[in-house]
Each structure stands twice: as structure tokens, then as C-alpha cells.
Amino acid sequence: MPPQLSFSDPGARSMGFGGAFVALADDATAAFANPAGLTQLLKPEFSIEGRHWNHSIPFIQRGRVEGLPSGIGADTTAGVRTATMDDVVTGLSFLSLAYPKGRWSLAFFRHQLASLELSSETRGLFAGGTDCCQDRVWDQRATTDLDIASHGISAAYRLRESFALGLGVVYHEVSLTSMATQFLPDEDPIAGSLAPTSYLPEQSLVSQSLVGDDADWGLIGGFLWRLSNSWRIGGVYRQGPEVEIAIETRAGEAVDLGVPPGAVLARFSGVPVELPWVLGLGWAYRPQDSGMTVSFQWDHIEYSTILTSLERFSARHGESLEEALDDADELHLGGEYVFLRSTPLIAFRAGTWLDPDHQIRSTSDDPFERVLQPRGEDQVHFTLGLGVAFRRFQIDLGVDFANQLDTVSASAVYTF
Length: 416
Description:
Largest sheet: 14 strands, antiparallel, barrel
Strand order of the largest sheet: 1-2-3-6-7-8-9-12-13-15-16-18-19-20
CATH architecture of one domain: Beta Barrel
């Protein structure tokens, strides 16, 4: 069960708002969130953010797709059981330098979009009756290592006092290594094909790998329009990169497939994978002479481009995919209250956002495929944030809680 990617904006302040930041974009993180917001900066700013990600992603581990367990060997679990792939990562997530000059603003940035290492292990997944004709998905061990980092430059121009446009050029670096090895069960004269699996190399059947280490350019475009002293709207478009991966299938040691163990059985190189593009629109309300701000944002993420690019490649080779992947419409809502009379300024933030299911799912008639690649679940995130602003220095903290991912962010902005 693959992880669901997240395309949240950088910065602890944005996180505190529940990600509803496109209509605000009033610090150096605007270089990625909405380049047009850079025109609001009055002095050069340096921004840095660190994040702590705690992934807990479910996958199908064992059990019965249909029928009752026989009670023999590994076939002892009624129904399907899940486990979780857990990964904890802490690192630098965003870095930017912004420089305003008159109507123009310029910013350089680096953004860590994804960084995770996951592993899973199946222990027996069965179907069929309890006396004969048992079906089994061979147990497998799988690992996934994904890293997506973006480096870019953004510029913004204020056409008039109430309206600004921004444009960015981004260089995306994508590294993906995914390995899955299938194993035959241990030899057992009683349990037979229902026996447990020891995952020894000599029991390996085949292994498959997906490897990609590629880069691509993309664009970011945004606008910011101040409708009045209290109301503003903003929008952003971020183009996703297209990278190439190689897919290999290699022979294991358990069965003589006519080639030495480890030999390549099939290989496809130059397989295109187009990552999603993002369209975001939002509004923000900040009453005059008030420390309160309320912000809303809608993001459309075209996740289906991933499968569309793979389907085109498969069609050229006379094959078709029996999988589906839905686009997502994220809804973000957040608020902030600043104690304007405090020194330094102190701000409290809270928000929530909906991350709809965008998990690859099977459309096959095979019951095993449908169970191993099920429809995912919508994730509701809740966020909190705290900010402390001095004359030239600002510190922000943010937390984001959801079932599959908890995130803690700490960022700092220095104005010079």
C-alpha cells in the first residue's frame, strides 16, 4: 500500500494556519507558496525551517481475502489484518533569501517536498475453501525510499498598490528506490503451501525494483490582489516535474527459471512518471486595527497525472493498467490572533484541512489485487501554531496532526 504524498506549503506560520496561506504569503516562504506575495516585503529576509515528520502508513499484512482459515501453518487469521509502515524523519525542510527593491522582489529557495523510508512484510494472505483449492499471494518484503527536493528562484512585480504577479523557476530532484521480493513458503510436509515463510534468500522467487534518480524543471505562477484594507485573494499554480524510472524483474533462488539467480528477466528503462500539478485559490480577512486574521484556501492537485503517464507508456507496449488514482481537492481553513500591544508581538494560530483520498487502487477483478490496493481514506488534519516577533527576528512553531502523518515545524525569519 503506497504512501499518499502531501503538497503542503513550507513554513511553521503557514502550518499554523492549516495551510491556508496563498492569500497571505507575507514572508519569505512566499517564494514557493505564492511568489506574488514577495512584493509585501519591505526589507530583505532570510528564512529557515526544520521539520519533524512521523509517518504511520497502513498496509495489508496477512489474513483471509475470502473464506475461513484452515488453521494450518500460516493460515490462522480470519479476515484481513493490517500493520503500519513507520518512519520518523527530522531535517531541513525550507531555506530562502528574499530581496525587495521598489516594485520588484526576488527570492532564492530550497524546499524539501518529501523524504521517507518505508518497509513492509506480508505473512500469509489466503483465499479459497478450508479443505482444498487454497489460493495464496506469495509473501514478500518491500522497501521504498523517496526523496524530492526543489531549488528555485522566484520574482514578483507590483503592477499597482493592490495587485501583484509572481513567477518562479524550479529545479526538482527526485530519487526513488522501491524493492519488492517474493518468497516461497518453507518446506513443510504437513502445512505445504500454507506453511510460514522464513524469508531466506534460497526461498526467494522473484524480485522487482523501481529505480529513478532524475531531475526536471518546473514553473510557479501566482497573483495577490488586495480588494480592500481587510480583504485579499490570492492564487498559485505549480507545475509538477516529469522524471524517468527503470523497472526490473530478477530471478530468485528457489525456482530454476532457466537463468542464474539474480539475472534480469525483464527490464523497462525510461518509464515516464509525471508528478502532480497544483492549483490553489484562497482569500484572507483581516479587519483594520485588529490582531485577528481568518484565511481559507482550496487546492486542486492533479494526482491522476501519475497514472496517466504510466498508462501511455504501457499502451505503447501493448499493455493496460488495472489501477485508478483520483485527483484531490484540499480544503484549508485557519486563523491567527496577534496581541498587538505585547512586546515582542505574540501570535496564536489554529487551523484544519482536508486531505482527500488519493491512493492508487486496483480496478482488477482479482480479489487479491483489490485487497492489496484498496481505496484509501480521507485524512483530516488539525493544526496549532505559535509565533513570537521581535523587531528584526521572528520565530514560529507549528504542529499538524493526522492519522497517517504528524508533523512538527520550527522556522525563523531574520530581516536585515
